[in-house]
Amino acid sequence: MIKRIQVVGAGGRVGSVVSARLAERGVLVDEEEPELVLLCVPDRAIAEVARGIDSDPWVAHVSGATPLATLDPHRRRFAMHPLQSFSKARGPEQLDGAWAAVTSETDEARAVGFWLAETLGLYPFALADERRASYHAGAAVASNYLVTLRHAAGSLLETAGAPPEALDPLMRGVIDNGFELTGPIARGDWKTVERHLAAIRAERPELEELYLVLAESTAALAGRELPRDTVSQVASSGSPTVCGTIQDLRAALEGRRSGSVGLVPTMGSLHEGHLSLLRAARYECDTVVMSLFVNPAQFADPADLGRYPRNDERDIALAGEIGVDLVFAPSAEEMYPDGFQTWVDVIELGSSLEGEFRPGHFRGVATIVLKLLSIARPTRVYFGQKDAQQVEVIRRMIRDLALDVELRVLPTIRDPDGLALSSRNALLSAEERQRALALSRALATRDPVAARNLLAESNGLFVDYVEIADFDPPVLAGAVRVGDTRLIDNVPLEGDET
Ligand code: AMP
Predict the structure, then answer these.
(1) How far apart are the CA of 471 and the centre of ligand 1, in A?
(2) Which pLDDT tens digit goes with each residue over 402-419?
(3) Which of 267, 279, 368, 387 to mutate to test the pocket of ligand 1 (most atoms within 8 A of CB)?
(4) Rg (CA), the chain
(5) Which residues contact 409 (CB under 8 A, 6 or more apart)?
(6) Which residue's C-alpha comes closest to atom 13 of ligand 1?
(7) How far is the CA of 383 from the centre of ligand 1 (A)?
């Protein structure tokens, strides 16, 4: 049909592929006096290049978004947009099997456009000029946004320690299987969708909106509707409800008892250690309660209690970011009303190690934890391995009193230099913090004698104890004083946890 074609922009992504294919098919490229000038130039350059063509050949562009009028003043014109994402690293085979949208105003132009597409190895179809915005939006969603989806999905795999490239065969499989919808939304498994949302909120909150929008569209595709609960559970998680009284917390929990409840007891001044517990609870439970209470009963020394760092406003905001539903922040009077005289004492476990240096400490801990359990009645309660003896005391209490709660213990979170995170670290000067590092380094030997020797060599550290404790798992535990601040740490002696 046409023998001589000039490709303008033959060095570009589309231009190079098109030129190579035309050459393969014996069509002369870059001829003098071309019958067709094909503009493979950036969209913004099309109008100017078209205006610069003096003779009267066919003029066409290969843009998906650009209207035909951009080729003015030429009348023998059309557009042929290959629906493919081209890479310069590959050749004309990229055209094989792809489709092409041909926009034309006359039958003749349409015939030339279809001929060109077929000559290139494309399947042509007609596209009305005034419809190209929706057409091009569709193309962008399918190609560009697929890249965005791969990035989003990849970052979620990364947070799980999984290789993002594992997604690629999965994504190809979905295409090869004809886009058959599988997965939780297709099944109407809203609990799983809620868990996804909770994990996203905790790990990659910036993806929450994207996930929700896609979940809603996917549900519609499956002929379902995303339950309002599923959406609101997350949407409402930006600001937790703060309850100051036992009665308020019980009332707030009343409507939530059909699902699981996770309780994370804290004394506030939240750091990544606390946040790891909150994230786990958010992931595992339908409702998450964080208690925020500096428990006077576990401080033997009033000066220590007075010094304890507090930052309720920031803590509530952080809890909100993770998706905590309820923050229980009672006053000391609420928890220890006048005449309070009932105490829980885990006698033996509570009197060794920390108990020896802080008499009454674990009595205060066990009592407040039992009271929190009795108020919140959680399915699961979350503690950090950082306070290994505390975990052991609580485990014993749960067993001894047959409490109906699952104890979840999460690994110690440390700064990159090994220092275990603690609210008390805020009380250390820069120089004290440097000295405090000796504790985690000593415990990392997993050997009490070596650890004691290392600590003995450290200036300005007073060692209260370094002992192996027969907990579950056994740990090498230590406590030191740095200036006015007392720090504790431990390393499990079984497993590879630090
Ligand atoms: P606290 O506010 O110090 O009473 O701690 C509240 C909870 O956070 C307890 O279960 C602690 O064991 C836990 N926790 C404190 N520090 C860490 C840490 N560095 N890593 C993991 N959990 C921690």
Answers:
(1) 17
(2) 999 999 999 999 999 999
(3) 387
(4) 34
(5) 382, 383, 384, 385, 391
(6) 384
(7) 7
Whether the model clears a pTM of 0.90, i.e. scores above it, the answer is no
C-alpha span between 456 and 451 (Å, rounded): 9
Catalytic residues: 274
Taking only the tens place, the pLDDT of each residue in 152-193 is 999 999 999 999 999 999 999 999 999 999 999 999 999 899
The Cα–Cα gap between 213 and 486 comes to 49
Nearest-5° Cα angle at 459, 455 to 465: 35
The binding-site residues of ligand 1, defined as CB within 6 angstroms of any ligand atom, are: 266-267, 273-274, 276-277, 383-384, 386-387, 410, 412-413, 420-423
Helix extents (H) in 377-417: 388-400
Look at residue 421 and give its three-state secondary structure.
coil
* 375 residue type, one letter: I
- pLDDT tens digit sequence for 449-476: 999 999 999 888 999 999 999 999 999 9
Both structure tokens of 147: 């890249």
The tokens 């004492």 sit on which residue?
Answer: 345
